[in-house]
Write a structure and sequence with these properties.
The chain is 33% helix and 25% strand. It has 702 residues and is an alpha+beta fold. Strands 2, 3, 4, 5, 10, 21 and 22 form a seven-stranded mixed beta sheet that branches. A six-stranded antiparallel beta sheet has the order 13-12-11-26-25-24, with helices on both faces. The longest helix has 34 residues. The radius of gyration is 36 Å and the shape is extended.
Length: 702
């Protein structure tokens, strides 16, 4: 009986507990709904609705002539809210829409697309990504005319999610200077150094969380529009850059070198017109830009004989020497304490003038002179390194600048042999851009300019930041010394180690450099070759340095390897620059009775072509107010006629530069494939022919 009572008691206790819980549940529901309802509804909304960042459009990077070096192109991911369309619209359009999606993406059948959209609509899904492949703006415009999609976001539920990609119209041209930026905001070049301007300010928009963790944007009055990034206007010249890269790559390939750099600077302003850095790629065959040796720390190395110019500056400034003084070099070997200095020429140069010593790049002569006049006071010599602005970084606009290195007298690393070796470019480290800035100062009559890569930052016609030419040193040496240094540099090309690049059309001034490379702590028979200088020597406009590391083959010296690249680039620049080739107006005219050969003219922008003709002194009839024109020869006269690119046919782009041809053809919805460089010589689709959907046009440039 006691057992029965015990069981009944337990059952009653359990029943009472269950009843209490059962009563508590509706009570709690009532409390949540009535008393705490606002609180939990706010929490739910906070979980399911969030203001999320909307990325700003990144600013463009432009070359000096306005050519685009980097821009952000809009791409779109296509999604749909399948519940938005009304039943009649949905039923009428789903078959056609599915067929178009299948034909466009070519990844699944029309039936599969139809089933996918219908299933999502039946499950009342508010967000469905139709395909993860991103489409371009023109494809997006076409899709907006498709069934269901044509009713827009609110009527048809179509969602075009914008995704921006960085695009470089000139591909790898100046790629390391233009630079990059990754997802972690780490990068290099202008993209990284000017990121604060380029990135703009992200906006905010309301997004709704959907099943599966995806987020759908919804319209809200509190959305904050993004503030797009500013554009960056560089000093780079795409034509000079192309010439520099082409010449450098050709020599690197021919000499199977490790890497090379070229920098071209405008003498008066310090504007960098081109900077190329090419390194052997992973394939071991070709060359690509993977590091900025011209500026970066890895590019800091012993400069070699190009540093002898500073040694001559110090000697001349101290009035220790005259260029016609004689110096004994003996058999090309001279002992400094426990080490021997050698000349490159076997048997030496014997007794020569100091001028000849520099032109022939005698290590023995220069080191003997510096040791003779500064050996007892090496700090005095090193003070000229400071005076020339070479002891410290320039604080360049590009991040990652390498720091120069020079031993200091009186420290543990300073030996009796340090001064002689430093005087010829050893036991020290300089970047190519530091060496170039020094040579540029000599070309600029002693005024050292800071290298400039970016001249302005702005948006549209409004500039928010400008970078004027900056003087680093008002005077690196006296006028007399600078003139003598200029004479010495001209002599190197006229009679010295670079006489192989002597030019009959204009004078180059410069100095060869060859430094043995250290491997495992010992100097080897591999070389770091260079040539630094400027042109034209009588009225310098451009300075340049060419560096080629570890070239193979016979005669792997600066005069044999780097100097020819300098000349090739200088020749092309000289030919392209109209300021260096003034037009003789008296010899350029058009007349009906004169047998004058018409210039070859291609199609292009009317304003640009008219400007060229005016510079050449040619009078040409041209329609006013027209964007695009093309040449027409009428009765031995040249006229420009309208090139109507607005017609719904294949445009005529013959004679246009690639930039203009791409602009016109891609705006017609044509996919452009091209080969070669220069102007359009051939186009695969005949001008005036019917435009086909998704058609491809092949261009041949030359």
């Amino acid at each position: 009986m006691n057992i029965k009572r015990s069981i009944v008691l337990r059952v009653r206790v359990v029943f009472i507990l269950v009843a209490l819980v059962a009563c508590a549940i509706p009570y709690k529901i009532a409390v949540v709904q009535l008393k705490e309802g606002d609180k939990w509804r706010a929490k739910a909304e906070q979980v399911n609705f969030q203001f999320r960042e909307v990325p700003a459009t990144r600013g463009n990077i432009y070359a000096a002539d306005g050519s685009l070096l980097a821009t952000s192109l809009p791409f779109y991911r296509v999604a749909i809210d399948p519940t938005m369309a009304k039943d009649a619209k949905f039923k009428a359009g789903i078959d056609s829409l599915s067929k178009k999606l299948s034909a466009f993406y070519k990844d699944k059948s029309a039936t599969a697309y139809k089933r996918m959209i219908q299933d999502a609509r039946g499950d009342k899904k508010r967000y469905l990504i139709l395909n993860r492949k991103q489409i371009g703006y023109q494809d997006m415009q076409k899709m907006t005319a498709w069934p269901i999609f044509r009713d827009g976001r609110l009527g048809g539920g179509v969602i075009f999610e914008k995704v921006e990609k960085r695009y470089r119209p000139f591909n790898s041209l100046a790629s390391r200077t233009v630079g990059f930026l990754n997802e972690d905001d780490y990068g290099a070049g202008i993209e990284y150094s000017f990121n604060n301007y380029l990135k703009g300010k992200d906006g905010k928009a309301l997004f709704q969380r959907l099943a599966g963790g995806s987020w759908k944007p919804v319209f809200d009055a509190e959305d904050i529009k993004p503030d797009n990034g500013y554009d960056v206007f560089t000093t780079l010249d795409v034509n000079i850059q192309d010439v520099a890269e082409t010449a450098l790559r050709r020599q690197l390939t021919a000499r199977e070198a490790a890497f090379g750099s070229v920098i071209v600077m405008e003498v008066k302003t310090g504007h960098i017109k081109a900077m190329a850095n090419l390194q052997r790629d992973k394939s071991g065959v070709g060359y690509s830009e993977s590091y900025n040796y011209a500026v970066g720390d890895i590019g800091s190395t012993e400069p070699g004989s190009t540093f002898k110019l500073l040694s001559m500056m110090a000697l001349l400034e101290e009035n220790k020497i005259s260029l016609n003084d004689k110096i004994e070099t003996g058999n090309g070997a001279h002992r400094f304490y426990n080490q021997t200095m050698y000349d490159a020429k076997n048997g030496g140069f014997g007794t020569i003038t100091i001028r000849e010593a520099f032109e022939k790049s005698s290590n023995v002569a220069i080191s003997k002179l510096v040791d003779m006049h500064f050996g007892s006071s090496p700090s005095k010599f090193m003070a000229y390194v400071d005076k020339a602005g070479l002891a410290e970084p320039f604080d360049l606009q590009l991040a990652g600048e390498g720091k120069p290195f020079f031993k200091k007298p009186g420290t543990k690393t300073w030996y009796g042999t340090s001064l002689p070796w430093i005087s010829i470019g050893y036991e020290s480290k300089l970047n190519p851009i530091h060496t170039l800035a020094f040579y540029n100062a000599v070309a600029n009559d002693g005024v050292m300019m800071k290298p400039v890569f970016v001249k302005a930052v702005g948006r549209g016609n409004t500039l928010v930041e400008t970078y004027e030419p900056e003087v680093l040193r008002k005077r690196i040496a006296s006028d007399k010394t600078v003139k003598q240094l200029q004479e010495l540099l001209e002599g190197v090309v006229t009679r010295g180690t670079a006489k192989n690049i002597l030019n009959a059309n204009y004078q180059i001034a410069g100095k060869t450099g060859t430094a043995q490379k250290i491997v495992n702590g010992r100097y080897t028979e591999t070389y770091y070759t260079s040539f630094a200088g400027y042109f034209p020597a009588d009225r310098p406009k451009y300075s340049m340095i060419v560096v080629i590391d570890s070239p193979n083959g016979y005669a792997a010296y600066g005069g044999d390897v780097s100097a020819p690249v300098f000349k090739e680039i200088a020749d092309r620049i000289y030919a392209l620059d109209m300021e260096l080739n003034p037009v003789d107006q008296s010899r350029i005219f058009l007349a009906e009775n004169q047998n004058v050969k018409m210039p070859q003219v291609g199609a292009g922008k009317g304003e640009e072509l008219q400007g060229i003709f005016e510079m050449l002194g040619l009078s040409v009839n041209s329609p006013t107010g027209e964007d695009w024109v093309m040449p027409a020869k009428i009765a031995e006269k040249l006229e420009l006629k309208i090139n109507n690119t607005d017609k719904a046919v294949v445009p005529d782009v013959f004679g246009m530069p690639l930039r203009d041809a791409l602009f016109i053809l891609e705006n017609k919805g044509l996919k452009v494939i091209y080969k070669g460089k220069g102007k359009v010589l051939e186009q695969s689709l005949a001008p005036g022919s019917q435009l086909g959907k998704n058609a491809t046009i092949n261009l041949v440039l030359g």
